[in-house]
Amino acid sequence: MTKMLPASPANIASAAKILQDGGLVAFPTETVYGLGANALDEKAVAGIFTAKGRPAADPLIVHLASLEQLPRVARTVSETARTLATAFWPGPLTLLLPKQPAVPGLVTSGLDTVAVRVPNHPVALELIRAAGQPIAAPSANLFGHTSPTTAQHVWQDLQGRIDLILDGGAAAIGMESTVLDLSTPQARILRPGGITREMLEAVLGPVTVLEQKRKAEKGLPAPGLLEKHYAPRAEMVLFTGEKAGEALNAYLAENRLVRKVGVLAADDEAGALEQAGAVVYRLGGDLSSIARAIYAGMRWLDGQGVDLILCREYGERGLGLAIRDRLTRAAGKVIGSS
Ligand code: TXA
Ligand code: MG
Fold it and tell me: Which CATH number do you get for residue 246?
């Protein structure tokens, strides 16, 4: 039986006890909800994979309450890693570091690196502190579904499969953390997220971004960064390039008489799209609102029973890169224009 409870101090304390006893607790972070287990307890970690239906080849992120806990999971911490952790933790930056032998191979899919971050959310920090252990936590959705940004989303996916969901309201960022590989001469973003390329470059100098299509190739250090992921049920089409807006409008006009079409749209485009016959989910007016709203929007449009979801990219500056990445993974089809 899964319980869903408000994240009060008493409920956080019971949640910590569940984690200590090897159970599974979904909890809020600033990015998305995580599904936590004691990272040093292999049996507990195995439960995460079962609950999510996640393949074991997809490694997990270990969450800490503070930088001081790092030696428990990382064998060495380079100068660069320390600088980044000091600059961006607590926050949406995941660092890949050489792993301690104490971390079960199941957490890292047998890799020699462990992914670590300190989340910037009071409930998450209090829970990890109270549990007294590093907490392994992927996003709290069924494998292949969109990441949950509210406790209700977690409930839809994982009720009956986990012990407890702590409800701490909607996630502030709404997209998963940036995953940064420090094993290459130049730091490399494996998954863009809340800590943007520009923010990292202000601290590190030039940073590279692993191209979407290369992630699926064999032998790359991120086996879990599957190309198709985070998908809604409806077919989804992404429009890219300068004429993305016009191309989306034309596609809508062609399809709206034969299919129920949903659109994820920025506020300034929403009215015209509604006029044109689409079911519109309003994302907001700036990149941070758009990032926050995208997963909730996909779930909402699925709930409206649309057959097709249309969306466009918003460039690659700042959060635009992460938005494009998630939309590309969710979309079955990308239509480019220049
Ligand atoms: O914001 C987030 O990162 C959320 C919250 C809950 O913290 N967590 C999250 O976890 O998104 P998950 O499991 O859905 O995504 C973790 C990503 C996966 O794509 C995985 O492949 C990658 O991190 N990863 C984990 N360990 C890795 C490693 N040792 N090397 C390369 N990639 C790794
Ligand atoms: Mg995930």
Answer: 3.40.50.11030
